[in-house]
Amino acid sequence: MQTFKTKGIVLNTIKYGETSIISHIYTELFGIQHYIVKGIRSSSKRKTSQISYFQPASILDLEVYHNELKELQFLKEFSWNTMFRSIHFDVKRNAIALYCAELLNNLVSEPEADIDFFEELIDLFVYLDQEEKDSKIANMPIHFTIKILEHIGIKFNGVYENENLFVLDFVEGGFTDTIPHHSHFLAYEKAAYITELSDNFHWNNVAINSNTRREILDHLQKFIEIHVSNFKKLKSYIILQTIFS
Predict the structure, then answer these.
(1) CB of 174 closer than 8 Å to CB of 167
(2) What residues have CB less than 8 Å from 49, skipping those under 6 apart?
(3) Is residue 85 pLDDT above 70, yes or no?
(4) Residues β-bridged to residue 25
(5) Helix or strand or coil: residue 124?
């Protein structure tokens, strides 16, 4: 059977049988794929050490078998594409990486390639790993959430305007000039942050206090629950809230 070489971002890994795993990986060539890795949980030291490759957010070079008619694929070879120096060891960065990987795993389910989006994700994870200042990565969960929603076709209607569109209504999914009768909205400066944090080049320079950042992210979680059917609440979001509280 023909094999293909592709890069991949590990999103989630579960045990399979006595010694194997199934790893959910977002690949450059095939989009979301589920790979069986046989024998990696066996008792040999070499195999056991390879489990670290399949931590969430790991970026790997893969050689894979691919059959479009099957839901489960097989890995032939795997190796590091990018060796992280902080994501798997720093508590805050690991919490952000886990959140981003779980969100991606929940929202992007189709096995369709999007090379531009894939490279954008790679850049974000590498930035998270290499940026030395915590203040420069604090907005990443919000920016990442907005980018994934845009990728699956969910985008806020309009942009913030001081006098006309100064309220972001998460139920209606857009900016408006009217305060709604429910609690799922942001207004004025807080609404403006959404537009600023959507920007691919300046999101990391937007100064927001931690309370406002949590409020925005809470509203985004509610927005997803309202507009994405069968969305599962993220376990990693609870961890993220705890660490950044």
Answers:
(1) no
(2) none
(3) yes
(4) 10, 33
(5) helix
User: For 28-120, where are the E strands, in sequence order?
Assistant: 31-37, 59-65, 72-82
CA-to-CA dists, residue 147 to 118, 134, 153, 163, 197, angstroms:
12, 21, 10, 26, 10
Report the CATH number of the 86-245 domain: 1.20.1440.120
Pick the CATH number of 1-83 from 3.40.50.2000, 2.60.120.1440, 2.40.50.140, 3.90.1310.10: 2.40.50.140
| Tokens found for residue 179 | 């305060």
Domain boundaries, the chain: 1-83, 86-245
| Global pTM exceeds 0.85 | yes
- 109 vs 34, residue with greater confidence: 34
List Cβ<8 Å contacts ≥24 apart for 180-183. Answer: none
The reported pLDDT for the residue numbered 232 is 85
CA quadruple 175, 218, 205, 86: dihedral positive or negative?
A: negative
